[in-house]
Design a protein that fits this description.
By secondary structure, the chain is of the alpha/beta class. The protein has 2 domains: 216 residues, 2-enoyl-CoA Hydratase, Chain A, domain 1, CATH 3.90.226; 222 residues, Alpha-Beta Complex (2-enoyl-CoA Hydratase, Chain A, domain 1). It has 22 helices and 22 strands. Helix 2 packs parallel to helix 21. The chain is globular and about 85 Å long. The C terminus is likely disordered.
């Protein structure tokens, strides 16, 4: 055998080995894909034990509508940390179903992963928990530690157990903003601001280095209203004296030192918790109430997600009613066009309202609003659909969540009735426009702009040129006209004169209790109250059905969502899931604000937006007024 033949045989052998490896890898990848596919499509209905505790363990922020980023949600779930969001509706539905379910003996609150959430949303969950207890069932809260939002819900339980090494973090509410004027001056950017409304303070971040007196004055009113409501709810639930929480916060430095730094002991001394027990001790106690799970050796329980899957499957089998109240959720910033869930689109939200108008089974509509506002044009599109619903003989009731301010109030103004939580932030009836120009920034780099136009206004919209006097006059006139239109819409909807509305407008934010007093809302109450009112207006029976009207995902979108979720779990298992660092958290508000301004569209367009930055420990910042 020649050397060439021998080498050829070796190369052929190597090639066959490589080809075999290639085919094997293809097969593995194919099997992996189908594995993902089967996992994504596989569903099963959980079985509720005959005697169990319903474990409610909300993760992340309580929201009216999940955001549109499935990968972010999937990574949160897969990494073992808190998921970004939990639907408020899911929590309320689970509690409501469990109240009359003989298999559910009690609710266990596991609040360790609950993020900061709107006080109005916490109040709705609290009311549902109290209703559950009124039915003769127990609610138990067990925690390693509790922050302010978590403690609000824990306080609604009959028994609150804190780990002996745990902490209770309650420090009251605060309201702080970032101001960018000095940075903008250093960069040489001219931010041209046009606004209508004495209290419309969103644009202060560009023109001031500190809080304006008017902003400080009005914010103190709603901030105190929210803090007072928090204290009243918690002290009433725990059976404490009226000033107990205020004293706890004020005395904390000296009282904690006297307790040798034992925060759990201090919480027990002040009556904030029932007893100091570990989770294992609480679990052992619950075994005597609902029995022991032979597999986990813990108490018999079912998670909220599994319980909802079991109970909702029965409702689906019952079919659809021919007379119902439709619910359209309007949550997030208001932007033009079609927008994903978690954001209000002028076209997309109007489409949902139009769908309700043409659905013969929908006899009334409740619009659940949780928005600080945004595009005025998009807000007008939505308001027109509300008017069209009413003209078609279908009553519209608005239920305000944490925010329904500025554009969020604009879209609510035409409803038959408006319900708000006592702690809803609403109003902020005002308009602004922002046009940044960068000619001074370019000059710092040695870049100049020169030329001419055929008219005094030609080229006035260029970001590399200063705004001339004529353009500035046009912009201010446009904003004042938009404000007048806003006043007129509120005047028509609330049956008040324009002058009456103007006195309570001017961009001022009101808490729900004050908003009712001045006539911006009709009633104080939650979503259930609004649903009952809509059903009554439509003359539906007391056992009316409710249908959430949402944009449905296509089969392809559902499949991709599930596959991404599976992929995110794999990434987390390999340690590839990104985790925010301290710098990202610090710069988060600045990045969020920049992104918001970018989404708002063309500079100079009028916006009705509220800087209802919620108090620390209760909600995240949602924007500006």
């Amino acid at each position: 055998m020649s050397v060439g033949s021998a080498l050829g045989g070796i190369f052929r052998l190597v090639w066959r080995i490589l080809e075999g490896i290639r085919k094997s890898l293809h097969l593995i990848l194919l099997l992996g894909f189908f594995g993902f596919l089967l996992a994504a499509l596989h569903t099963s209905i959980p079985i509720v034990p005959r005697s169990a505790a319903l474990v409610i363990a909300p993760e992340g922020e309580l929201v009216e509508q999940l955001s549109s980023d499935p990968v972010r949600r999937a990574i949160g779930e897969a990494s073992g940390g808190p998921a970004p969001e939990t639907l408020l509706k899911d929590v309320l539905d689970a509690i409501q179903s469990a109240k009359t379910d003989p298999r559910i003996k009690l609710i266990v609150l596991d609040l360790g992963n609950l993020g900061v959430s709107g006080l109005s949303k916490l109040q709705e969950v609290g009311a549902a928990l109290r209703d559950f207890r009124a039915a003769g069932k127990r609610v138990v809260a067990a925690a390693d530690s509790l922050d302010q939002s978590q403690f609000y819900l824990a306080a609604q339980a009959g028994e609150v157990y804190l780990d002996p090494l745990g902490e209770m973090s309650i420090d009251g509410f605060s309201y702080y903003r970032m101001f960018f004027k000095d940075a903008i001056d250093k960069l040489g950017v001219d931010v041209n601001v046009f606004r209508a409304g004495t209290f419309k303070s969103y644009t202060d971040q560009f023109s001031r280095s500190d809080m304006a007196p008017a902003d400080r004055e009005e914010s103190a009113v709603w901030l105190d209203a929210l803090w007072n409501a928090y204290q009243q709810d918690v002290t009433r639930a725990r059976g404490l004296p009226a000033g107990a929480l205020k004293d706890f916060v004020a005395d904390q430095p000296t009282a904690l030192a006297a307790a040798n730094g034992d925060a759990a002991k201090l919480a027990l001394q002040r009556g904030l918790v029932t007893a100091l027990k570990s989770r294992r001790e609480v679990g052992d106690e619950l075994k005597g109430l609902v029995g022991e799970d032979p597999d986990t050796h813990s108490f018999n329980s079912i998670a909220m997600s599994q319980y909802l899957a079991a109970t909702r499957s029965k409702r689906i089998l019952k079919g659809h009613a021919d007379a119902k109240v439709g619910v359209v959720v309007a949550a997030g910033d208001i932007l033009d066009g079609h927008q994903p869930p978690g954001t209000i689109g002028g076209d997309s939200t109007a489409d949902l309202l139009r769908q309700a108008r043409y659905d013969p089974a929908v006899k009334a509509v409740v619009m659940r609003v949780d928005s600080p506002g945004g595009s005025m044009f998009a807000s007008e599109e939505i308001l027109r659909e509300v008017q069209a619903l009413r003209k078609a003989g279908k009553p519209v009731v608005v239920s305000m969540s944490t925010y329904a301010a500025s554009g969020g109030y604009y879209i609510s103004a035409a409803a038959n009735q408006i319900f708000a939580s006592p702690t809803t932030l609403t109003g902020s009836i005002g308009v602004f426009s922002v046009v940044p120009t960068f000619q001074r920034t370019l000059e710092k780099l040695g870049v100049t702009v020169d030329g001419f136009g055929t008219t005094p206004l030609a080229g006035s919209g260029r970001p590399d040129r200063a705004l001339d006097a004529g353009t500035r006059q046009i912009m201010q006139s446009t904003v004042e006209h938009a404000y007048a239109s806003f006043l007129r819409r509120v005047s028509e909807g609330r049956k008040k004169s324009v002058d009456e509305v103007d006195k309570i407008a001017q961009g001022r934010v009101w808490a729900g209790t004050d908003a009712q007093r001045i006539g911006l809302v009709d009633h104080l109450g939650g979503l259930k109250d609004a649903l009952d009112a809509a059903a009554k207006l439509a003359e539906l029976p007391s056992d009316y059905d409710v249908d959430y009207i949402e944009s449905e995902l296509t089969l392809r979108e559902q499949l991709l969502l599930q596959l991404r979720s599976q992929g995110a779990r794999l990434a987390a298992g390999l340690g590839l899931a990104p985790q925010p660092n301290a710098l990202e958290r610090l710069l988060g508000p600045l990045v969020e604000e920049s992104g918001r301004m970018a989404r708002f569209g063309a500079p100079g367009d009028p916006y009705a937006y509220c800087w209802c930055r919620a108090p620390r420990g209760i909600t995240r910042a949602l924007g500006g007024r």
